[in-house]
From TrEMBL:
Highest taxon, organism lineage: Eukaryota
Gene designation per UniProt: Pip5k1a
Alphabetically ordered keywords of this record: ATP-binding, Kinase, Nucleotide-binding, Transferase
GO biological process: phosphatidylinositol phosphate biosynthetic process
Lineage, broadest ranks: Eukaryota, Metazoa, Chordata, Craniata, Vertebrata
UniProt organism field: Rhabdornis inornatus
Keyword Repressor attached: no
GO-annotated cellular components: plasma membrane
UniProt GO MF annotations: 1-phosphatidylinositol-4-phosphate 5-kinase activity; ATP binding
Name used for this protein in its record: PI51A kinase
InterPro entries associated with the record: PInositol-4-P-4/5-kinase_C_sf (IPR027483), PInositol-4-P-4/5-kinase_core (IPR002498), PInositol-4-P-5-kinase_N (IPR027484), PInositol-4/5-P-5/4-kinase (IPR023610)
SMART domains for the chain: PIPKc
Domain PIPK: 1-239
Amino acid sequence: FQNLNQNPRTLLPKFYGLYCVQAGGKNIRIVVMNNLLPRSVRMHLKYDLKGSTYKRRASQKERDKVFPTFKDLDFMQDLPDGLYLDPDMYNALCKTLQRDCLVLQSFKIMDYSLLVAIHNLDQAQRERAAGTAAGDGDGPGRPAAQRALYSTAMESIQGEAPRGGTFQTEDQMGGIPARNSRGERLLLYIGIIDVLQSYRFVKKLEHSWKALVHDGDTVSVHRPSFYAERFQRFMCHTVFRKIPRECSPT
């Protein structure tokens, strides 16, 4: 709570409520948090990234979904050159990640992920053109306009919106402009997720066992300080890259 008040530039999730429902003699706890992905923007790719490579590939069951969530090894295969950002945007993002990782490390939290969803503007343009040619146009299936709370990806790294405020947005919904290696224009929607796993006794045992069988530095379960450092390094060197200013996606 203190971090969110003092630091509006954060990719950590915003928790709006915690509820406990009693059913069948059991307590079911429900956490309500902000949604990172606007429904009015179609995401062409989505990744759950930890900076770990051990078994970090989407299963066949996941791949069969309409909107699958891929993982680290999939990202490195699909986008080996990473995602290119304007230098100022890149610096702001990496500073935000560094600060958030320090907060999580101070609470001995690990095993979190960066959710990265990609809207390809050029691909969307081609899809609209194909839809218009087929006579589809903007049919009834088009999502309704959405009012965004203060939690868009752009604001999470720039912290420019008034705290607690809302604002009307266009379809881009605060996405971070980027490009891929083919020069296509992208909008990124990102946030740190799964932040409720602490490095306690059971997780320490899990890491020790996996480290004996596999390379300990590649498994997802790791002590918070090492996890934070590996997470930042992967995001700021493998996932996100600086684009030369003359080729800025903005």
